[in-house]
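Board notes (copied after class):
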Amino acid sequence: MPLENLLILIEKLQKRIDSHGDALRQSEALTRYALIDPLLRELGWDIEDPDVVVPEYSSGGGRVDYALCKNGKSVIMLEAKKLDTPLNDAIGQGIQYCLVEGTEYFVVTDGRCWEIYETHKPVPIDDKRIVQFDLKDPSAADACLKALALWRPSVISGQIAVGATPVIGLPEKPGDNALTIRSSKEKTEVSQTQELIDINQATAKDLERLPSIGPGTALLIVDYRDENGPFKQIEDITKVRDIGTKTFEKLSSHITIT
């Protein structure tokens, strides 16, 4: 997922909220169609694939609007509300559904404001909230970073977190919403004297030490490995999206498999 595309979408959704706010405040279905579904899709959730997203998911004695799934099991339950609807009333019940089902995360949104809760955390409900963001944040880049917490490769690898600013350069001037991807010279690279990294065993954090591999690509590697099994040869890493021949040439002397 090119990060610029996510930024462009968020800016588009901001304008959509401004232009169609009155209609969105009257209809949950329209809010889902116009705001929620596009963001989920951009974050890697194929809303047309029932193996990935199950709408109107029944669980725990009730029903939520979406279940985001990994290998047929919900990893996130998501409750949608029409624009500008208070979210508080849905939180307790949604978390309870997750506890019954064994789902680790609960998300509630009105299309503009998004809140993510770690359901099994043994703390009061307010302290279960781990991420929240507002698509109308004055800085679309800030909203973009926070939205990355719901990026599918991050979720299915168990690494829900806000995007890191060292990887995505935030605007230096107020009002400038352009994301700047830092050059490879600004990233930490594995030196020739370091041991090889086993791409079948490495965590996403380990993979980030490789040349030309940032957090996003590292998660794509882990995601591919989880879905397809171990790499049989190091050349197989080129089957991962965003890793082409030139990138492999930089990686080949730094990686191994067992």
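Comment from the instructor: The beta strands are 53-59, 62-70, 73-80, 105-109, 113-118, 129-134, 168-169, 180-181, 197-198, 255-256. The two ends are 29 Å apart (CA to CA).
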